[in-house]
Amino acid sequence: MQGKSKNDLIIRVGGEGGEGVISVGDFITQACARAGLDVYTFKTFPAEIKGGYAMYQLRASTEAVYNQGDIFDVLCVFNGEAYEMNKARLKPGHALVYDCPGDFTPDIPEGVHAYPIPMTQTAKDLNNVRAKNMVAMGALSVLFNIPEASLREVLTAKFARKGDAVVQGNITAFERGLELARALKKTDPWAIGTPKKDPDRDVIVMSGNNAIGLGAMIAGLEFFSAYPITPATEVAIYVAKHLPKRGGTLIQAEDEIASISQVLGASYAGKKAMTSTSGPGLALMGEMIGMAFMSETPCVVVDVQRGGPSTGMPTKHEQSDLFLAVHGGHGDCGRIVLSVENVQDCVALTVTAFNLAEKYQCPVILLSDGSLAFSTQSSPYPDPASFTIVNRERWDGKGEYNRYKLTESGISPMVDPGTPGGMHIATGLEHSEKGTPSYAGENHEIMQAKRFNKLKTVVNDVPLTEVDGEGDADIGIITWGGTIGVVREAVQRLRAEGIKVKGFYPKLLHPLPVEQFEDFGKGCKRILLPEVNFLGQLAHFVRAETSLRPESYTICGGLPFTPEMIVKRVKEMLA
Amino acid sequence: MNAPINVQDRFHQVQLESKDYREDLSSFWCPGCGHSGVLTSFLRSLAEIGIKPENLMSISGIGCSSRLPYFVKSYKMHTLHGRAGPVATGAQLARPDLAVVVTGGDGDGFSIGGGHMPHMARKNVNMTYILMDNHVYGLTKGQTSPTSHRVMKGSVTPFGAVEEPLDPIMYMLTYGATFVGQAFAGNVKLASQLIKEGMEHKGFSFINLLSHCPTYNEIDTAKVFKAGCEILDAGHDVTDVNVAMQVVQKAKAEGRIPTGLLYKVERPTLDDRMAELVTRVNGHKDYDLRKVVDLSRP
User: Burial code of A100-120, b = ≥16 C-beta within 10 A, e = fewer?
Assistant: First the structure.
């Protein structure tokens, strides 16, 4: 692809679910990260529990990678179905690795470099049919310079607990794959570059959902209530495994309403508490999020967005819950909404979400999405000790305690149950400083102002916007969530072609950092706002709250944008 | 999460009278409301238990009865319609060393909140749920509730209700509550005794207090409840769920209401099992998180 170097490699592996497609992808990803490469993966799972088409795409480079890329350079297919699914995307110059003899005979398109590998046959000859994927992995390693030593290490470590025989069986199949590929003549230009040696490089490789779980624990999570929902469940799975080590509690509730209710109860009782869900669950939680705002109870709600509305497309990518996150629920109801770009953000902004919830005593909604949920990425090692952790302001025990005391900042100290002298009621009714129900008009105006005014300083609290580029631009691109990574690369490519572009990447979406938007807009002749939803949800808020008039670019086909789509649109705007 | 202090260790720490637990806020219930009897009974049981007010969390949902926490000196939450149970579950798991009592009505608990009821029971959340059952929606001015009699006329059922009522006692016995009792709210002696025993019970205790609504329920008056209520035989076996169910069904068929302690067994509580998990992995709050991060190194 234009602008992408030949050693920034995108490999797609496709096959039947259960054939080891996902493990091959994971092994290569781990091995590349171990060898010092930057990695970014993208997966689709079959809707079925067993069988169905499974796909794993991984991008590895000596340079930083921000997204899954435009299209694969190398396609490796285990069966005919996977070939059929992808053959329309095969273009001259691509490499194809396929099972031969297999259940299909591909008609190789003109200009495609084809490498037949007897994956199934070799595995059968070795009396180890399950190792078909290891044969393929060996071939890929030789053909595209995937670090062999690292692959061996990862493979050995992964199978170690199954015993030496299993390790050896897989190594043998892998080595057969190496030999088979060495016997072929390489005709394509694709090869992963050799990573620069960087002694300070220290990375982890994890998925977005796991990273959110890790971030929560770094923030001091003590209570998690979960209800299973695609594509958010893995957050709870990760936390369930590790939180007991910290003495914390995770329970599975009977529904999402119960989850958020339990979170509020635990938070009132003094604990850092959260839940994670997807759009349908967030919709159910709306009333209790209102209570969190009204009763000024800290809570963190993670929404891993999926295709909507209604049941929608549960396994597909979309960024269409922004309206719900910002305005879901009845009455004038404040909250803080953050969104994450990548795995690194999933750790760091989850910590931020807790810090803000604790400081401002309000609900904080963190938006992730279905691609990031399962995308594994290499990201800098997050040393837990390096994060600033904020805890709620607690009553000093002096004088009379008023839970909703009017203060300059609007923030009133909290008190943990069990503390003598601090008894009070947390209520969803409008209330006085003491918490006593009050329907007096004047009081409601004062208390609404208190709850909203405290949120005014959120925008200055932590830097949550980023400007990509300097000076004036013909086109300024504003975007959010996972689309930021796509725009970063598009901006680089456009700039390399001499086009004047700038990017603006807000991660605080509510309250909207209006000044920062305005400042960005000043230097841009026109503004493009790509986002993966039908209505142009962020564009709507930008038009409503700022003087900017972004031109919306929306898609909702269940997949993220590619850098090439953004590049093309910008060029069309300038044509 | 906390140093394991049994909530029962918090009992008998003070000697206070009922009135010392009464918040200085006048009741908003109608004159003659059965809920006043519930409040009196609750305050009396607190005095008998001798808990410090700050060691009690009193949690409710929405409805006439859900205003009760306002009148009780304690930490308290007045939450959303139907959600007192899960909020209380979260609070209890967060602070298993504090006493948690939920108070709420039949509509709050068994209509809008009905989805939560089985789970508090089966999970054996260590808290007390006092249902203030007046067979009617009062705060919205007289509609039938899930426990209303079939013929009852409500504002939305001017020709009489067409549905059969559910039985909170049978429901709780079915879903595994480990303590189930029932009393007439006007019988403060029995009601306060049950609340006290319920709070002393380690596990989920459910107490149905039949509480007459003088304003919107002309069928289930104080007189009717009083006449129908019958104290259980002294020899009633509280450990056998089948016996409890038979007693309830037989009484219902004969137009009587069995009152007293119907069922009581011991079973590990949810917070006990959560604490076991932490013990199994030798968990503690200073566990070095770097060990968790290290698992994600490539």
Answer: bebebebeeeeebbbbbbbbb
Provide the pLDDT confidence category of residue B3 given band limits of 50, 70 and 90: low
For residue A386, give Cα distances in angstroms to A377, A378, A450, B164: 20, 19, 33, 61
Q: Inform me whether the pLDDT recorded for B2 exceeds 80.
A: no
**Domain spans in chain B, listed from the N-terminal domain onward:** 7-294
Residue from the list A254, A264, A437 with its beta carbon closest to the beta carbon of B90:
A264
In whole angstroms, how far apart are CA B80 and each of A523, B32, B60, B67? 48, 26, 8, 12
A296 and A247 co-located in one domain: yes
Inform me whether the C-beta atom of residue B292 falls under 8 Å from chain A C-beta atoms. Answer: yes
Average pLDDT over residues B59-65: 98
The CA–CA distances, whole Å, from A531 to A203, A306, A569, B19 equal 29, 14, 13, 61
Contacts of B31 by beta carbon, 8 Å cutoff, 6+ apart: B214
Question: What's the CA gap between B17 and B44, in Å, rounded?
Answer: 8
What ipTM score was computed for the predicted complex, to two decimals? 0.98
pLDDT (mean) for A432-455: 97
Residues paired with A503 in a beta bridge: A468, A477
- Burial bucket for residue B9 (CB in 10 Å: 0-12, 13-18, 19+): exposed
Optimal mutation site among A251, A274, A293, interface B, most CBs of chain B within 10 A: A251
Residues in B closer than 8 angstroms to A382, CB to CB, are: 293
Closest partner CB to B91 (pick from A29, A266, A436): A266
Helical spans, DSSP H, in A275-395: 279-294, 322-327, 343-360, 370-374
Domain count, chain A: 4
SS3 category, A363 = strand
Residue where one domain finishes, among candidates A435, A462, A489: A462
Residues A246-296 pLDDT 10s = 999 999 999 999 999 999 999 999 999 999 999 999 999 999 999 999 999
How far apart are the CA of A250 and the nearest CA of chain B, in angstroms?
8
Identify the architecture of domain B7-294 in CATH. Answer: 3-Layer(aba) Sandwich (3.40)
Same domain (yes/no): A426, A481: no
Give the number of other Cβ atoms within 10 Å of residue B65's Cβ: 31
Give the model confidence (pLDDT) of B174-219 as tens digits.
999 999 999 999 999 999 999 999 999 999 999 999 999 999 999 9
- Rounded to a whole number of angstroms, the distance from the CA of A253 to the nearest CA of chain B is 8
Residue A28 sits in a domain whose CATH number is 3.40.920.10
Residue-wise pLDDT for B79-117, tens only, equals 999 999 999 999 999 999 999 999 999 999 999 999 999
Interatomic CA distance for residues A497 and A502, integer angstroms: 14
Q: Give B-chain residues touching A423 at CB under 8 angstroms.
A: 53-54, 73-76
Give me the numbers of helices (H) and strands (E) for chain A, helices first please. Answer: 19, 21
Query: Helical H runs in A223-278?
Result: 233-242, 256-268
Question: How big is chain A by its Cα radius of gyration, in Å?
Answer: 26
Average pLDDT, integer, range A72-94: 95
Q: What's the helix, strand, coil split of chain A in %, to 5?
A: 40, 20, 40
Q: Are A197 and A160 in contact (CB under 8 A)?
A: no
Which chain B residues contact residue A217 at CB under 8 A?
A: 289, 292
Among B102, B114, B89, B129, which residue's Cα sits nearest to residue B270? B89
What is d(CA A477, CA A524) in angstroms, rounded to the nearest whole number?
A: 9
- Look up the domain containing A400 and give its range: 393-462
